[in-house]
Specification:
The structure is a single chain. It contains ten helices and 13 strands. It is an alpha/beta fold. It has a single domain, classed as Aldolase class I (TIM Barrel, Alpha-Beta Barrel), CATH 3.20.20. It starts with a strand and ends with a helix.
């Protein structure tokens, strides 16, 4: 039987206040990762889940999500490209006719997989890239090779994805002086750079508070490149707010402000961890354990479990995401970011 995990009834929940239905899901293929970024996991030996969804159970989960009304799917990890059958699973999701299919990767394995993923039906790709300086990149990721990531980016450009984005978590004293360089580098390659405030989730909560570089400071560092307006979000495309380039309206930069300006009130996102837990929010371990249902291929039962998980979603008028105390206990790698 599936079961709610750590149900939180002390705060107003989504069930108590009518709001959007779940339309977007981030589905983790694996909690395994070949990097250990300082804001995500404590080390390369921090351990992994004992059990993860096998392929058929994962397929049943995705079928149920689509049946429950989800129209936009993003595949995540850990690092999803470590899954030996990632292209086959991407092709399966594409076959369900969803409106949008995207994947987030650290790109260490992307050079060989970019074209197969595009051929499988993947539309959009986001690459995590926290520095363009090899030594810094190695330090932030605890051993990552920048040259492999850059080769993956070039392969993705050649594969012809509909959209390529770059995600950078901005860390004071590590990469905060690189913002203009990352913007120009991304624009030169037809990619959209996005800067993410450090979130006090899991390992991010253990970093010194002064590590946070807020949105206003990021904008000040990019004032010579960006228009003066506040920017706007893409409809049905997540929390990032985009600002156009000062000299070319076709170019833009995104900002994700989970710490200084939370966006929980408009969230239509559900998460599925690689162990089959349905999670309504990144910033809490609340959720519904649906592994048994998935393993049995019980799509109807999974649809009911999805509704149960969605009912646990906090009301964003009260809940403020990763600024809440519960966020520090969440594993970013295990939940899929």
């Amino acid at each position: 039987m599936h079961a709610a995990l750590h149900a939180r009834r002390s705060l107003p929940l989504l069930a108590d206040a009518p709001r959007v239905e779940p339309r977007t899901v981030r589905v983790s293929l694996t909690d395994r990762c070949d990097l250990a970024c300082v804001y995500c996991r404590p080390s390369r030996s921090d351990g992994y889940l004992e059990k993860r969804l096998e392929d058929e159970a994962w397929r049943a989960m995705v079928r149920a999500l689509v049946q429950a009304g989800v129209r936009r799917v993003r595949i995540t990890g850990g690092e999803p490209l470590l899954h030996p059958r990632v292209t086959e699973l991407v092709a399966f999701v594409a076959s369900l006719g969803v409106d949008d299919l995207a994947l987030t990767t650290n790109a260490t394995l992307l050079e060989k997989l970019a074209q197969p993923l595009r051929d499988a039906g993947l539309r959009r790709l986001t690459v995590s890239l926290d520095s363009l300086v090899a030594e810094r990149f190695w330090r932030i990721t605890r051993g990552g090779r920048l040259d492999r990531v850059l080769a993956g980016v070039e392969a993705a450009r050649a594969a012809g994805f509909e959209e390529l984005k770059v995600n950078t978590v901005v860390l004071r004293g590590e990469n905060d002086d690189e913002l203009p360089a990352i913007v120009r580098w991304s624009w030169a390659r037809g990619m959209v750079p996005r800067f993410i405030e450090l979130m006090h989730i899991g390992e991010g909560a253990n970093l010194p508070r002064q590590t946070l570089v807020g949105h206003d400071e990021m904008r000040a560092r990019l004032a010579h490149l960006l228009a003066d307006d506040a920017g706007e979000r893409d409809p049905d495309r997540g929390p990032a707010r985009y600002v156009n380039a000062r000299h070319d309206a076709k170019l833009r930069v995104g900002f994700i402000t989970g710490t200084t300006d939370t966006y929980c009130g408009s969230c239509d996102r559900l998460r599925v961890a690689s162990d089959g837990t349905l999670r309504p929010c990144l910033a809490t371990n609340d959720g519904v354990d649906a592994m048994d249902l998935a393993e049995r291929g019980d799509v109807g039962g999974l649809v009911a479990a999805i509704a149960e998980a969605w009912a646990l979603k906090p009301d964003g008028r009260t809940w403020k995401g990763c600024t809440e105390e519960t966020a520090a206990a969440v594993s970013m790698r295990a939940i899929g970011g």
